């Protein structure tokens, strides 16, 4: 036997230790329904889920909102200008480069730029199948795929022109490659893991917390293997950890920009969250938000997670619990928990806020665990009924959050301005407060409209986040309104504004009051829609009547 073969055999012995590792793809078949038409019913159900999953990923009527429009507008810049622009934004560049190429090939319309995320969302399905199957067998694989297909969190970001669907794909792919590399830590697998690690880091900074948690876990595993006299397992753990480090080295060229962003951009719209808040709001958002069916779905997912952690595999209708947690899912759960702990600590050190979209870095791992939990439900009918309830709640929640809820009123406002110009003539001055409404509105406004943002009369296509709070603190709403009146002259003025932004409390209202004092004929044309994610008002201040 060769040395390589001996190493593989030793690693297999380590892996076969039931107290420390599980065999890949355990035989846990999907229980058949007894009636003859049971298989046909399964096929119909799978077809319905597949069609619903595809439809919910491509049906989105709302225009791009701030984050999406900002992504598309940055990606539309010349390729060499994207890194410099991102110094003002706070993200790594990979997704924007990919979107830049995508827009050149497919187009830059709303549907076109969102299609990239939809396709990435479909790529999650085979990854979920493999990940859950390796832990819980075919039944867990089917459950995980179905949960990912109709999960409202996944669907939300599959219909957004943002990097979060790519983050989910990379996180789950990285876990799978790391698992393969641990079993056989040869150069191709380790190189693949290093490449995926680097790609994730160049896509979103929360990849750092996932990699840090994974690295700590691997070092702990190596230490335990050393104590237990398992040299091959120890070597495999260290090699996989080394691949993560290699991926981090590939990210080093961007670190100076990251340090500048962390010092000057940050998250001026919120404060750091505590761990319990992160866990609670993330679970609710995984269910689709604060709506009734979403809360029920979140509870259902929590129950499935508990089953995945504590329930023993079985074929009957009874579920046996092991409060020590099941070893085959313990490490995956610790990776999720460790990522959130590291991220929370980093946010408090750096003063960064938490948004539930950052949960994308662990969301697919959580859904894999939920799929394993569903597989613990014995009995053919019980297994299918439990999944059907969760999938139905997910579909309803997804329709509410990802399809029917308007993400912005930008198109409504732009239509109102264009309609008014048919009477008043072109040339209106459109003021936007806060500037965060600008990117979405800029994609909808007529070309002959001059638009400028508070407080520096900048282009609305982009937002400069550098020292954001300091710039706002030094600005005067009254001075801005006075300069706007001077710039407009005898032209109509529109003020598109919102009072819901914590960074601009009372500011935009003060601008409106100053304009109203100078042009008392001002009227509200569009009012904020409380159902919209990005709410905005549009006030028209007509041109002053000629003297005499």
UniProtKB/TrEMBL annotation:
Intracellular or extracellular location(s): Cell membrane
Q: Name one GO biological process term.
A: lipopolysaccharide biosynthetic process
**Where is this protein chiefly located?**
membrane
Asked whether the keyword Membrane is assigned, the reply is yes
Q: Which residues cross the membrane?
A: 40-59, 166-182, 202-224, 236-255, 294-312, 332-352, 358-378, 385-403
What keyword terms does UniProt attach to this protein? Cell membrane, Glycosyltransferase, Membrane, Transferase, Transmembrane, Transmembrane helix
Task: Output the superkingdom of the source species.
Answer: Bacteria
Q: What is its EC number?
A: 2.4.-.-
The protein here is known as Glycosyltransferase family 39 protein
Lineage start: Bacteria, Bacillati, Actinomycetota, Acidimicrobiia, Acidimicrobiales
């Amino acid at each position: 036997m060769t040395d390589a073969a001996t190493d593989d055999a030793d690693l297999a012995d380590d892996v076969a230790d039931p107290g420390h590792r599980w065999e890949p793809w355990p035989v846990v078949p999907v229980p058949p329904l007894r009636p003859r038409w049971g298989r046909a019913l399964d096929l119909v159900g799978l077809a319905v889920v597949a069609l619903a999953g595809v439809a919910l990923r491509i049906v989105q009527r709302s225009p791009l909102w701030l984050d999406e429009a900002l992504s598309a507008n940055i990606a539309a810049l010349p390729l060499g200008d994207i890194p410099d622009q991102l110094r003002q934004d706070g993200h790594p560049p990979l997704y924007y480069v990919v979107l830049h190429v995508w827009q050149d090939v497919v187009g830059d319309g709303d549907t076109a730029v969102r299609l990239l995320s939809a396709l990435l969302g479909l790529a999650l399905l085979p990854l979920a199948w493999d990940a859950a199957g390796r832990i819980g067998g075919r039944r867990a694989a089917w459950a995980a795929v179905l949960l990912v297909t109709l999960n409202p969190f996944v669907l939300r970001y599959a219909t957004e022109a943002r990097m979060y669907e790519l983050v989910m794909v990379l996180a789950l792919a990285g876990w799978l490659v790391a698992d393969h590399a641990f079993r056989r830590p040869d150069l191709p697998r380790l190189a693949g893991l290093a490449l995926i690690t680097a790609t994730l880091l160049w896509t979103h900074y929360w990849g750092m917390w996932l990699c840090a948690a994974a690295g700590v876990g691997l070092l702990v595993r190596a230490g335990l293997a050393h104590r237990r006299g398992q040299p091959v397992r120890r070597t495999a753990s260290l090699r996989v950890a080394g691949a993560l480090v290699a991926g981090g080295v590939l990210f080093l060229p961007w670190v100076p920009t990251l340090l500048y962003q962390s010092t000057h951009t940050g998250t001026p719209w919120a404060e750091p969250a505590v761990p319990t808040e992160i866990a609670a709001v993330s679970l609710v958002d995984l269910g689709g938000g604060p709506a009734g069916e979403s809360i029920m779905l979140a509870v259902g997912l929590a129950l499935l997670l508990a089953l995945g952690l504590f329930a023993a595999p079985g074929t009957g209708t009874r579920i046996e619990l092991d409060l020590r947690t099941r070893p085959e899912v313990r490490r995956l759960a610790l990776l999720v928990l460790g990522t959130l702990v590291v991220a929370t600590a980093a946010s408090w050190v750096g003063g960064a806020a938490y948004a539930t979209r950052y949960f994308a870095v662990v969301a697919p791992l959580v859904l894999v665990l939920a799929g394993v939990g569903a597989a613990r439900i014995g009995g053919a009918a019980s297994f299918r009924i439990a999944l059907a309830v969760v999938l139905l709640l997910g579909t309803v929640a997804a329709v509410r959050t990802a399809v029917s809820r308007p993400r912005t009123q930008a198109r409504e406002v732009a239509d109102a301005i264009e309609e008014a110009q048919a009477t008043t003539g072109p040339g209106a001055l459109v003021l936007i407060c806060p500037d965060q409404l600008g990117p979405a509105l800029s994609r909808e406004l007529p070309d002959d409209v001059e638009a400028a943002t508070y407080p520096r009369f900048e282009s609305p296509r982009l937002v400069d986040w550098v020292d954001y709070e300091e710039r706002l603190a030094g600005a005067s709403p009254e001075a801005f309104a006075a300069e706007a009146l001077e710039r407009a002259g005898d032209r109509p003025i529109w003020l598109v504004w919102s009072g819901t932004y914590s960074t601009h409390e009372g500011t935009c209202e003060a601008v409106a009051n100053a304009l109203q004092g100078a042009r008392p004929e001002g009227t509200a044309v569009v009012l904020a829609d409380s159902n919209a994610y990005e709410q905005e008002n549009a006030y028209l201040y007509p041109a002053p009547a000629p003297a005499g």
